[in-house]
Structure formats: C-alpha cells, structure tokens
Amino acid sequence: MKKVFLVATVLAFTTLLIVVVFNLFLKESSVLPPMFQSKEVKLKNRPTVYNLGVNFEDFNPSTSRAGDFVFSKDQAWENRVFLEFGYLAKNDQGKKILPHPTYFLPQGTKMMAVGSGKVVDLRFQPESNDYELMIQPLEAPAWRIAYDHLENVRFKKGETVQAGEVIGEISLGYGNDAGNFTMTEISVFLDGFRPEDIENYCLYLLLDDSVKEKYAQKILQFAKDWEEYTGNPQIYDEASWIFPGCRYEKLNEAETMN
C-alpha cells in the first residue's frame, strides 16, 4: 500500500513539474507559433520599421510643399495636416485618442511600406471606396502593420512586401470638393481577439537605430515649419512628446474607444 502511495506521489509530482516547466516555456519561448506565445514574449519581439511611409521634407514656400505634404490652411483638419500618435481627435460623435499617426495628403500620393512582411489581408471599404492593406512583419509574426485609405494597391494577399516599396496610393476616401485631399493612417499593433488584447505602438519608436535620429529631426522640423506657416506656435506640444510624433509609447485598443 505504501509503495502504491509512493508511486502515485511521484507521478503527481512529476506531472506538476512538467506542467510548471511547460507553462514557463510557453511564457518565455519565441519559437512557438504566435497563437501559443504569451503576450510578454510577443511584446519583446517587436517589428522594425525603416521610413515614415511618406516623405517629410523642409517646407518650400515656392511650391507650398514639405515633401509629399501640401501646406494649405483650407485643407487642414483641426488646423493640422499631420496628427501625431495619441492625438485627441474630436468630432460630432465624441472624442477618440488616435492609436496611429494620420497624414492629410493629396490624392495619388504614393505610400511606401515602412517595413517588410507578408500581406495577410486586403479589405475593401465601401464607405470610403478604398482599401486597407494589412501586413504581417516577417520578424514579428504576432504583429500587424495596417495602411488605411489606399487605392491602386500593388500587392495581393499572400505576397511579400519589402520596406521602401510603393504599396499603393492615397485615395480620395473622405476627401472633399475643395482639392482632393484625404487622410491616411499607419497603425502598428500587437494583434488580439479582444480590444483589451490589442496594443498599438507608436510607429516612430520602432524605427531602426540607423535612421531613427534622421526621421526624428524631420518630424520636428515639419512641426516647426507648419507652425510658422500658420502663424501659430502652439499647434504642436512638442514638450509632451516622448519621441517626435509620439504622445505615448503605446495605447491599448480599449483605451482609444469612445
């Protein structure tokens, strides 16, 4: 009887040990498929980006352009043509903290892939008559990079995109009759089934070290140029940015909802 009890105890202890070790493996391993990895592991294995999606350059008064952007007070939204990550947007439906940067650009502006990856979804949006392109980063398969309000998309589902390649053009989308300007958004997020599982990260903090400082200076100069153009030095609160263009490092999807 004692022998049977001893064997049962050893088996129970061994089973418990296996469960503990297996759970630790699940929590720490990045080898497992994304659906089996813990959130902690997924957050550590972040994607790397290499550009801003569109061109930011110094403002040229003779062309009214700053790279791909056209400086025009008539075409600004809330007196801006660039909304930083974490901007508090307000409209008739309420307020929302934007979990992505937003660009206001002329229709037809070319969008570049900020990082390499596989196209996992290309969704038509009838309300704006354009597309959202979803890419799974090669080095961080639990993450997604979404490009919203595109037309003339150059890649199909299942194809691989390299950083810097033109993936499509900015659509008219929700543009108006005043000049065919519209908005586009680039979201980088850790995917999940529920809003509280989704973590949106500021695109600019994920820039590769080799280009991070260059693009940080471009964003700061862009903000300065726009403030000088509008005659309002208080448009952007750069002092509150944790990095140029980022009010926050990350935003949980549940936090951004009305």
Helix-strand blueprint:
Blueprint: H1 2-28, H2 39-44, E1 56-60, E2 65-67, E3 69-70, E4 82-83, E5 88-91, E6 94-97, E7 102-106, E8 110-112, E9 117-125, E10 130-137, E11 143-151, E12 160-161, E13 166-170, E14 181-190, E15 199-201, H3 209-230, E16 250-252, H4 253-256
Antiparallel strand pairs: 1-2, 2-3, 4-7, 5-6, 7-14, 8-13, 9-10, 9-12, 10-11, 11-13, 11-14, 14-15, 15-16
Question: Explain this structure to me?
Answer:
The chain has one domain (48-256): Glucose Permease (Domain IIA). The N and C termini lie far apart (64 Å). The protein has helices spanning 2-28, 39-44, 209-230, 253-256, and strands at 56-60, 65-67, 69-70, 82-83, 88-91, 94-97, 102-106, 110-112, 117-125, 130-137, 143-151, 160-161, 166-170, 181-190, 199-201, 250-252. The strands form three sheets. Strands 4, 7, 8, 9, 10, 11, 12, 13, 14, 15 and 16 form an eleven-stranded antiparallel sheet that branches. The model is unreliable at 18-31 (pLDDT under 50). A hairpin with a 4-residue loop joins strand 1 and strand 2 (65-67). The chain is an alpha+beta fold.
- At CATH level 2, the architecture is Distorted Sandwich
How large is the radius of gyration?
23 Å
Any idea of the CATH topology? Answer: Glucose Permease (Domain IIA)
Low-confidence stretches: 18-31
Main sheet specs: 11 strands, antiparallel
Morphology call: globular
The CATH class is identified as Mainly Beta
The overall number of domains is 1
Order of helices and strands: HHEEEEEEEEEEEEEEEHEH
Helix content: 10-25%
**Computed structural class:** alpha+beta
